[in-house]
Amino acid sequence: MTYEGWILLTACLVGISCGMVGCFLIVRRMTMLADAISHSVLLGIVLAFLVANSLNGIYMLIGATVIGLVTTFAIQSLHNSGVQEDASIGIVFTTFFAIGVILISLFARDVHLDVEHALMGEIAFIPWNTYTVFGIEIPKATGMLLCITIFALLVILMFYKELKLTSFDAALAVTLGLPVALIHYLLMGLVSITAVGSFDAVGAVLVVSMLVVPGTCAYLLTDRLSVMLLYSCLFGAASAIFGYYGALWLDASISGSMSAAGGILFLLTWVFSPRYGLLRRYRAMITS
Amino acid sequence: MIQDMWNALLHQPNTQWVVLSTMLLGIASGVLGSFALLKKQSLIGDAVAHAALPGICIAYLLIGEKQLLVLLLGATATGLLATYLIQLITTTTRIKKDAAICLILSVFFGTGIVLLSKITQQAGGNKSGLDHFIFGQAAAMTRNDVYTMAGAAGGLILIAFLLFKEWKLLIFDPDFAKNSGLPVGLLETLFSTLLVITVVIGIQAVGVILMAALLIIPTISARYWTDRLGWMVVIAGSIGACSGIVGALISTISTGLATGPLIVVTAAGCFIVSFTIGPKRGLIQKLMAHRVRLKEESI
Amino acid sequence: MEALNVKDLQVAYDRKAVLDQVELSIPKGSLTAIVGPNGAGKSTLIKAILGMLKRSSGQISILGKPYSPKNRNVGYVPQRGSVDWDFPTNALDVILMGRYGHIGWFKRPSKQDIALAKEALHKLGMADYADRQIRQLSGGQQQRVFLARALVQDAEVYFMDEPFVGVDAKTEKAIIDLLRELKQKGKTVIVVHHDLQTVPEYFDHTLLLNRTVIANGPTEQVFTEDLLQKTYGGALAFFSTNGDKRVMS
Fold it and tell me: Which domain holds residue A96?
């Protein structure tokens, strides 16, 4: 595959995996938690690097998942001790992120990991760093993202019912004997690994836009969760593709441009959605 | 290192100014943050801070040089636009507030990154130094920047002091406030605008990503020491000031470390101390109360 | 046999006891109303029994066995305000959720599950609304969807939190018909109820609650002026019209 092909594929995988997972965050009103996790993941990656002294994907994945769950747990504990939920989120992730940034500046300066990378990823470099699987040479980050996307898809397919029910009506889920807390942590684990998978491509901060924007667009277009998941993946891939070509045209940051493209897609959906769009609202107001 | 810090503080006027301005910034954000927390608007500050980045970049592209006041005007404009859009999205669609905040925050920030990458690669001219706005770099501030920031922060503190009782009533009981003849709409708008200004003047020292922490952490820490709003504002301001001073000092003497993360980590330290030993709902106090109760019950 | 037995139940928020020393038993096959003033802990009682709130103390048994969701013998209809009405889901889908306990992990709803859900919709007069997003339903219709969902749970003991609040006359009739049908099938239904006037008409068993049990027994014995005054702290006015005793809170 060409250089451009790999970048597009990687970007689309980011859009699809984040789009899928993001839907559940939106219907659970937990996008802020995702914002927190995607920032904290930076600390996980840095710690994994300091401990294992390598940038191997597996260590990063473990480190980030652990920190992601620690973040979720810390926020929950603070909230339980009486701190407002959004304030708990604000305390935990900014602190973790700050520690991550300081550690990078102190210890990891000379390696591939730097602050700029953490911020916006380096999708343009991904195709250079490859390994060979079954005789095909594929970029490492793309391979990892592919695995993560498939894994996330499998988890969502297997636990679709449970994820849906705990999102919609946790009280009923409790009376039916579903392990509500476990499913919550399962989802947060999924958010963490998706965030790590996307880290190389779009960085810790812009992952949030891939997690939230496609799902929000889909949310304005359908009343079925399953359809919303599908649309969200499509929107994710579309932001990736438009973002990439937009970046080529402007000669600017690819990840930033993916996020901006998502913003434009949202704006269009917001205005033109046949179900919940501003135009329809406006027309309904005039006729009534 | 402590020695270096003292020397810098005592003998370098530049350092003294930087420290003074971050101190004022810390007080202002502690004070405004307290009101924002009680209004349940903590994370709006986060959105405003991220949204400031494209504003700064646009202002820079328009005037072509780094003039702090103009950049901050740009930041205020996009910051206000972001709060307005969040409001509009939540009122005109079924999208909930958290998703709207995240959406606006990340899209504005992404747009900011696009513009920033464009600016940094533009040939010629001095290196813009705009990337300092991302994590904050107090040492990079010029004398003029420091005056601007200190002046604005001082103004904010003064206004908050003058309007203290009106805002208090407004937050605690908006209906009663309206009945008492207060111009509620005006006060609300004023508050939002001042919150945006606080965030905006803070981004040069703390950076757009972490600015929200300076609004939230000192405020929450103060809750563990008092139940009165007046004291809370004072304590939050002091913790903010402390974090500002320590962060700025460490950052100016050891070049290369961004100021924002240092300020945040200092504030987080204050939070952990307050969370543990604070007399109001602090960890130790809770354990003691539990013990006393067990004893009472066994008697 | 007793449908529900509660011993020494205590629930506390922030050290303040909301429910204290609650002891009660409800006979199998009864229609029971839980009645009490605002803040008496009615919803809290149900949530504590079903383990949605932490209990400080207390033993709960359902049909003679300690309560566990795994027994799948309990159905629950939450207060209407407690879910997100913008959730991307339609009426039929919500009802199907009631089957999830029976379907089990990793499996999809079967044709039979779907048929059951449709039947329940039909029974509550909602067959035409299967595809509606739940926000587009009226308050009464939303309530009927939740009842249908409880129905397909196929439980033995049902807990319903204020099902009659804010519904139209048609829905009220549908609900009460359903309650009677459940009773006929030998099921037990326990309802948090607000409207004192309809208690004697709808329910054969009544529990008066105000932070603790004031009285518990057959409606005709418990639903007296004396005991009601005691429950409501004297804040009730009684007056009669056409010989009927009417109560206003």
Answer: 3-206
